[in-house]
Amino acid sequence: MSETTGLAQPGTEPAAPDFSGWTCPAPLRDQPRVVMGHGGGGALSSELVQHIFAPAFGGELLAGMPDSAALTLGGTRLAFSTDSFVVRPLFFPGGSIGDLAVNGTVNDLAMSGAQAAYLSCGFILEEGVEVPLVSRVAEALGAAARTAGVEVATGDTKVVEAGRGDGVYLNTAGIGLIPEGVDIRPQRAVPGDVVIVSGAIGAHGVAVMSVRDGLEFGVEIESDCAALGGLVQAMLAVTPDVHVLRDPTRGGLAAALNEIAVAAAVGVVVNEKAVPVPPPVANACAVLGLDPMYVANEGKLVAFVPREHAEAVLDSMRAHPLGAEAAVVGECVEAHPGMVVARTGLGGTRVVDLPLGEQLPRIC
User: Fold this and answer.
1) Strands 115-126 and 168-177, how do they pair?
2) Domain segments of the chain: what residues?
3) pLDDT in tens, 279-312
4) Fold assignment, 186-351
5) Partner of 193 for a Cys bridge, out of 7, 280, 304, 331, CB 3.0 to 4.6 A?
6) CA–CA separation, 114 vs 107, rounded Å?
């Protein structure tokens, strides 16, 4: 995969590898048909957006590829986001598709520093689905909205023929207010920033997979699904100068860090031992051959914070229930721009690539 080998001539010092010249021998955009990986939040998803959707839609707001778009309307700064949810099964330990629909959109708004205010909700129902099941999903969604402090202000319902859906799909869109002085976006990451994760990773993806495939790991693993708006506001109360926030959902922490590194043209170094992983998740991933850094989360965030504010921001996170296990996991560097590197427990290093697709499809 390397275009530059860095091999030295006899009698000379070996040259450092030139990462900037690396290319992929099989461009992902040449994939002739849509596959499950196109919805997984990895390289295939990125290619689909960059080569199909972005050119078709145009516009500067979309070009930055944020979790939510920051808009100015009538002199007011707003964040606007939309998301669709196709998780299977509809209910899983620690949550449901209704919880995901609310928390996923609220969290996307929070990653711009916005306080979510209103949501829309679209139900796409398959003919034949039980009405009591639809009611359970709606009740879960309403409860999650009340917990997150947002109002479902508008919605839509469609029904597709039997066999053309999977019971219930949801779409939510949300708007929220961005506080004055807050400018949070991937392009603001700079060398010297401290990378903080709000807590243990990997629980959501493993929880969904365990009930979907009937797997038992000796202990029930629950999703971390939660609305992060309150945690973000606690962080911004310390300083509005938080550079980047991202919720590592599809593709996990690895995808989030790669997206930020590419957007800001910086390198990221992660201390692998510092990344918090619950022992049951670590054990499950070891059995299944998965890397926890690539497993989805639905109630965690990763923050890039200026070093002078990092300790105070970390303390504020640990004082919040959703950030009690927050940890510094790495830093932003000038070297290897656009690339994420992990220092392993054995003292070596490895490249943490953007995942191709999704290890565990249909997890959100």
Assistant:
1) antiparallel
2) 71-177, 186-351
3) 999 999 998 889 999 999 999 999 999 999 999 9
4) Phosphoribosyl-aminoimidazole Synthetase; Chain A, domain 2 (3.90.650)
5) 304
6) 9
